[in-house]
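FAQ
Q: What does a multi-component entry look like?
A: The components come first, one per line:
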Amino acid sequence: MCGIVGLFLKDKALEADLGALTAGMLATMCERGPDSAGFAVYGAAKDGKAKITLQSPNPDADFDGLAKKVEKAVDSSVKLDVRATHAVLSCKASEADAVRAALGEIVPSVRVMGTGNAIEIYKEVGYPTDVAKRFDLKRMSGTHAIGHTRMATESAVTTLGAHPFSTGPDQCLVHNGSLSNHNNLRRSLIHDGMSFETDNDSEVAAAYLTWRMKQGLDLGQALEKSLEDLDGFFTFVVGTKTGFGVVRDPIACKPAVLAETDDYVAFGSEYRALAGLPGIDNAKVWEPEPATVYFWER
Amino acid sequence: MATIDLAITPLRALNENLHALSNGTNDTEWDVLNPEGRHAVAVGLDAPVTVHVHGPVGYYCAGMNKQASVIVHGSAGPGTAENMMSGRVVVKGDASQYAGATGRGGLLVIEGNASSRCGISMKGIDILVRGNIGHMSAFMAQSGNLVVLGDAGDALGDSIYEARLFVRGTVKSLGADCIEKEMRPEHHALLADLLEKAGVTDVETRAFRRYGSARKLYNFDIDNADAY
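Then the predicted structure of the entire assembly, as tokens:
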């Protein structure tokens, strides 16, 4: 089944509340997906800086002193903010590749959940409200956020199998549905140089969009193309550093509700997810049409 | 007038109270506040009472309704008035997928738009939509009437049996075995009655076109395989 929420702020004054609003939305979708949860938060982007979100099965051992070890390896300063099993490593953008290589050497058990200038990704197995609490989502701020509660169908219940999937810088995708041609598509994307960490169909959709954007398409155009190349049931919500997109397959079995006010655009698998948002009573609320791309950019 | 605030009272208590009503009850008017998209609000009613739900509801509102009038002052999620037997359900806003699915009787009025699969497998229910309906509406519809004042999406009436479909706007495409049919006097009369029952006074029956079954797919015939 799965539950999706997304919030794209237009009003700067709401940015401090992004995490609290997203946590509230995510909590309403627990019943749609109680096995794992995750969220991407696009927050304070600094020019020339990169953020790398890390996850570790043994955070105490892996994250202890990690910043110093990385600094020594790349001969530059980095910052590490630990949140439970995750940590966000900030470094100079020009050194991001070197930092990633060093991380692979120093702590091979640590996984990279996402990279970019603004994105931070947190996801774990567990009941969604517990997962949100573990990472203190409520106190996060930023410009937009996307969340997911998972009821696993296509691959194992693991941290890596949770959504969002991030396959390119500042990109993420959450999915409700199931793709029927993901194996063929995965093979063809691997042939074109993409790499995968799971057997999950949603990761293929994320990688597909990354691959299209690498070809020079913007997110809206990549989503248009996905309607031609992806087969199966899907409602996707996707984020980029400055954009927020929604698309449903032509059959559109998977539920979706959009709401827009002067202050935000919000997405929910159900209206329940939107009920607590400020000004929702006067928002334009509608069900996105099948095979139609909705896309906002700041 | 009884008022139940779902921000305070559990949904189960609301439905238990409504299920306890029977013919002859004095509690004929109910107000439900703060539904906030909850599922299964006012389902399974079987008494001639009126329930006003003030705000948007989630899945399956007023499902299996008998006798009661349920009025949603807001939008409704998937499966609104699913398998209704009798009575009346009115949605003042939009309705999501498969509104009125498998309904056997009664009247469902959607004042906004209905999305895909409206009236799927309808079996006697009357549905009137003031706005548009989405794709695959009235799929395998067996009896009853679907009246649409706006436009219909793709594959209207796919594999339809005997239901009558009246559409005032455009039809994006017709599904397998669904054809346009002549509006004879009896259809104008039937439609006028449905419009009146739904409280629609600003349109005329001659603005509608009628669609129904070509009846080719009742029994499998290899010569009709292309029609599926």
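Q: Is there any commentary attached?
A: Sometimes. For this entry: Residues 2-217 of chain B form a domain with the Pectate Lyase C-like fold (CATH 2.160.20.60).
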